Amino acid sequence: MSNRDPLRPKNWSFRADIPQRYNDNARLYRERGGQVQIEEDVKPFAADNHFGDSSRFFFFCLMQDQIFKERLKGDIAELGVYKGMTASVLANIARRAGRTAYLFDTFEGFDKKDLVGIDKDKRPEQFTDTSLEAVRNRVGTENVRYVQGRFPESAAQIPQDLRFCLVHIDCDLFEPITAALEYFYPRMVPGGFMVIHDYSSLAWNGAERAVDAFFADKLEFVIPLTDGGGSAVVRRALPPEPAAPLPEKTWIKANDLPAPDILRAGWSKAESWGVWGTGDCHTLTVPRPQPGVPVHVELDCAAALVGAITEQTVDVTLGEGMRSRLLATWHFTKAANRAIRVLDIPADESAVMTISLRPAKLVRPVDQDPANSDSRILGAGLHRIRVIS
């Protein structure tokens, strides 16, 4: 059997139903305040005969309803806009919810830097038949922010303290999907939806590999969907209960710290020496020894300095979102890299201290040293931690 032979029987008798809330029970749906407008929303989505993927369209509608039902906060984003079909649906959600839809794309097809490894055989001319102007004409500009460029570098164009309730990742390739997961995951609100297209399609193996690798050590599970492109969805888990306080004045090895209780987001798997921070933000949630008491947190850490990368700057913040504030800026050089660095945390009544390390440079060892096969985006490496009140 060839790859193109259909597995389904010739006499396929199953229906492609419209969800009952938008069909048989549409009147009840509207009476209860439903926001979806099927006829209006489907027009730009179905333009250009967009695969006739009704399952995909209706899943976006159902996510919209759930966001309103649960009153999820946060904005919306899409990486991989192409001609703007799904972006048009996301823009409508943003307008109805009073949010902003951030649409990331080169608007010129694949960036050749991403056609490597598992994706090196993909054709660079795919998805070039689009433009920012054409997408803007289809999607509009109200409650929409267009972000052009290669991701994750393009993310520097938006505020870094944003939170998201819905992120759609449809960029096909391992490199940008991995970068998107590393960037958006720590910025998702609890219950927020992350949808990754092409996960189980078998056409884009980089998508499946990127998703499986990223969520291997996370609380969340990957749920395959039945749309034509084999999307998968993950909902951001609620933060777990605070871990027990660390023993005071005692050095704890980073590879002994529980994830995700303390190594919350932006950390790779533990290694014999410690743990690497990955992506542009590494977050620790350290239980306070006791509320209302100032604390010193000491971190024995270093930065990923490889090849031409001879220095790194890391901003250290306390708190989350709009409430975060800068505690320190650390400078790492090859001459003075690994060291014990001290954070003075003021007294407050919070149960945990949320500490985030944000490296200024995104360092991928494989790009700096051909002999190094490490393709992770590395920032700060944590060896040990100690808390003193």
Number of helices: 8
Percentage of β-strand residues: 25-35%
- Which regions are unreliable across 5 or more consecutive residues at pLDDT < 50? none
- How much helix is in the residues? 10-25%
Assembly state: single chain
Taken in chain order, the helices and strands follow as: HHHEHEHEEHEHEEEEEEEEEEEHE
- Nearest-integer average pLDDT: 89
Outline:
The chain has 389 residues and is an alpha+beta fold. The chain has helices spanning 26-31, 38-46, 54-70, 85-97, 132-139, 174-184, 205-214, 365-368, and strands at residues 75-79, 101-105, 144-148, 164-169, 188-196, 223-224, 232-235, 252-253, 263-265, 275-278, 282-287, 295-303, 311-318, 325-333, 339-345, 352-359, 378-388.
Please characterize this protein's 3D structure:
The protein is of the alpha+beta class. It has two domains: 20-235, Rossmann fold (3-Layer(aba) Sandwich); 252-388, Jelly Rolls (Sandwich), CATH 2.60.120.260. Helices cover 20% and strands 26% of the residues. It has eight helices and 17 strands. It has helices at 26-31, 38-46, 54-70, 85-97, 132-139, 174-184, 205-214, 365-368; strands at 75-79, 101-105, 144-148, 164-169, 188-196, 223-224, 232-235, 252-253, 263-265, 275-278, 282-287, 295-303, 311-318, 325-333, 339-345, 352-359, 378-388. A seven-stranded mixed β-sheet has the order 3-2-1-4-5-7-6, sandwiched between helices. Strands 8, 10, 12, 15 and 17 form a five-stranded antiparallel β-sheet that branches. Strands 9-11-16-13-14 form a five-stranded antiparallel β-sheet, with no helix packed on it. Helix 4 (85-97) links the parallel strand 1 (75-79) and strand 2 (101-105). Helix 2 (38-46) packs antiparallel against helix 4. The chain is globular, with a radius of gyration of 23 Å. The chain starts with 25 loop residues before the first helix and ends with a strand. The model has no long low-confidence stretch (mean pLDDT 89).
